[in-house]
Amino acid sequence: MVRRAGPLLEPWPGGWSGFERARSIGPAAALAEVEASGLRGRGGAYFPTAVKWRAALRHGAPVALVMNAEEGEPGVFKDRALLCLRPERVVEGLLVAMEVLRPAVTVAFINGSADPAAAAFERALADSPGAGRVLVYRGAGGYVLGEETALLNAIEGRRAVPRPRPPLPVDAGLFGMPTVVNNVETLAAVSVIFRRGAAGFRSEGTDAAPGTRILSVSGRVSRPGVYEVPLGTPLLATVDQAGAPPRERAALLCGGPSGGFLPAGEASVPLLPGRYHATGAMLGAGGIVVLEAPGDIRRAALTMAAFNAEQSCGKCTPCREGAPLLFEKLAAGETAGIEELTEVMEAASLCGLGQMATGPVRSALAFWPEVFA
Ligand code: SF4
Predict the structure, then answer these.
(1) H helix or E strand, kind and range, residue 343
(2) In the prediction, which pLDDT does 76 show?
(3) Which one of 349, 355, 356 would you pick to mutate in the ligand 1 pocket, going by the greatest count of ligand atoms within 8 A of its CB?
(4) Residue 262: beta bridge partners?
(5) How far is the CA of 373 from the centre of ligand 1 (A)?
(6) Contact in structure between 301 and 369 (CB atoms under 8 Å)
(7) Do 211 and 74 contact (CB within 8 A), yes or no?
(8) Which atom of ligand 1 is found nearest the CA of 355?
């Protein structure tokens, strides 16, 4: 349910004027417009979008473009909401990206269980100038698909495990082509840029993090749903709007299984990329699960630890062996040795799933050690 809308979620005005503008100014000027907007990717890493596009184009070879609508993170549902509610916005952003990158192949990778989102996207695509130019691929699910190279392996029909880096996808990605992978919300923001202009896009958010972003707010709130807010907005303002418990009893899980827990009293931070706390809480893909502390914390931390252990793809030892061990130790209240285990996982795991699986456990133990005694 949309609780607050901004340029991404507001009613679609119709037509394809954003795409037509990109086409009329040409690929180089359109890329300069994306650069001027300061847009950063909305999948969780916040890498500058124009830098990624330029990196793929610099090879002078045919590129591949992939829209990532896998969204396999518990507590995050904003891409599905965008695709269901404003599919034209996403399609228009994808068309602009196609205009700039002139890809040899464009793939829309959509979570296999997100049928309404896929149907809405395909309907909007069929009614757009991009009809017949985008391959829709339905994924089999899995949190590790948030890692771009695992996603590319899945599209190629291989086992969905991350590839070693380098090479980066922008150098050698899908079937060896320089590849741009963009999140659904990132592409929707591109549409906003070409409707409002780079300056219009920058009129919300901060200098370093312009624009709005969509938060998925769930858990112990009276008004769960998607909230579109300018970056830089105080985190607690949105949580309060959603109807959270009183501050002294509320806790937030920010960033899901790769993020961390935070007592609401410690959450006076602006919504910006990066960590809110050294133990793990971060903006990530914009998922905020509100909990009651300390009552909910043990179960929630164990659920996150179990999820990471289950989702580990098994390719590297620190995560394959470490994530289940982390869960077992936490469940048994055996906290001795957890610190060393998390250090090894963070330093030696091949991808972000293993490196950041420690956040929920470390943060829960840091703030509420008594619930694991
Ligand atoms: S960190 Fe985990 S998910 Fe990532 S490659 Fe290693 S085993 Fe697979």
Answers:
(1) helix 338-348
(2) 94
(3) 349
(4) 252
(5) 29
(6) no
(7) no
(8) 1
Q: Which domains does the chain have, with CATH numbers?
A: 2-202 (3.40.50.11540), 212-292 (3.10.20.600), 297-372 (1.20.1440.230)
**Which stretches of 59-218 are DSSP H helices?**
78-85, 87-101, 115-126, 148-155, 184-202
Beta bridge partners of 289: 218, 253
Q: In the structure encoding, which two tokens stand for residue 126, read together?
A: 């069929």
Closest C-alpha to 55, from 204, 171, 175: 171
Q: Is the pLDDT of residue 203 over 90?
A: yes
Residue 185 is encoded by which pair of tokens?
């919300």
Which residues have C-beta atoms less than 6 Å from ligand 1? 144, 161-162, 312-316, 319-320, 349-351, 353-354
CA of 311, closest atom in ligand 1 = 3
Q: How far is the CA of 358 from the centre of ligand 1 (A)?
A: 13
User: CA dist 134 to 43, 64, 141, 209, 302, Å?
Assistant: 21, 11, 20, 30, 40
Percent pLDDT > 90 in the chain is: 95
Full-model pTM = 0.96
